């Protein structure tokens, strides 16, 4: 029984790690997409370009 409980805890930790990794990957993808979009010259505010 002890071995099964240890295995269950291991599976829970691995699943938690996988979920966190997936969330971090998705957040990173969105962050880089936003950076690429707002880094373009034609996206900035027109009044900001005059400064």
Automatic annotation (TrEMBL):
InterPro entries: Ferritin-like, Ferritin-like_SF. It comes from Corchorus olitorius. SUPFAM superfamilies: Ferritin-like. This is Ferritin.
């Amino acid at each position: 029984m002890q071995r099964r409980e240890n295995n269950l805890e291991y599976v829970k930790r691995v699943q938690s790690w996988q979920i966190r990794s997936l969330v971090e990957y998705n957040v990173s993808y969105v962050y880089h997409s936003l950076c690429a979009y707002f880094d373009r010259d034609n996206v900035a505010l027109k009044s900001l370009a005059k400064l």
